[in-house]
Amino acid sequence: MMNLHAKPEVSEDMKMIPVENHGVRCMSIGFLLDKDAPIVWRGPMVMSALEKMTRGVAWGNLDILVVDMPPGTGDAQLSMSQRLRLSDALIVSTPQDIALIDARRGANMFRKVQVPILGLVENMSCFKCPKCGEKSYIFGEGGAQRTAEEMDMKLLGEVPLEISIRTGSDEGKPIVISSPNSASAQAYINVAEKVTQRLKELAEERQMGPEISL
What we know:
The strands form two sheets. Strands 3, 4, 5 and 6 form a four-stranded mixed sheet that branches. Strands 1-2 form a two-stranded antiparallel sheet. The protein is built from seven helices and six strands, in the order E-E-H-H-E-H-E-E-H-E-H-H-H. It folds into two domains: about 60 residues, no CATH class; about 130 residues, Rossmann fold (3-Layer(aba) Sandwich). Helix content is about 40%, strand content about 15%. The protein is an alpha/beta fold. This is Nucleotide-binding protein-like.
């Protein structure tokens, strides 16, 4: 999706140097494997890989480090919450009930291990016909909004299902680069701005600390 295929180089202190495109430094286990090679790992191997992808990479100075996690509440999510000091968790889900079940479980798991929830993003919220512009709610309408309200989370944005997003992703050209003024690009930009603002707010809340009254 970022049009990156090279294997990462290794620094003098034996850390992997992230591959970069569009001003974003990236690291993926896919960079280290042959094409189409299966990843058949049990828990300990998953935890080892997470350690290499985080502490074993020469990230340099970053504004934000985003870790794209699979849905669910397995070893990967639990290891992340235990081994890294996470600022927050951002929950992403499509609108249908069956997907939101996993989103709810994921949010509850992170809350249980004391990781704050940044908010919820609805992906593939609707399909906009490229010819007539009519919106079709293929996966249902308003599912993420209702879930956010029921679970006391903020809905940070709704990203539509559009052909241009899919084709751009396949070609390694993010929609915010290939068509920055489009409605789809603006949806991503709005989510990014809200995420950044929420991170600032939560950081300020942590610095304030608790009030003690006698």
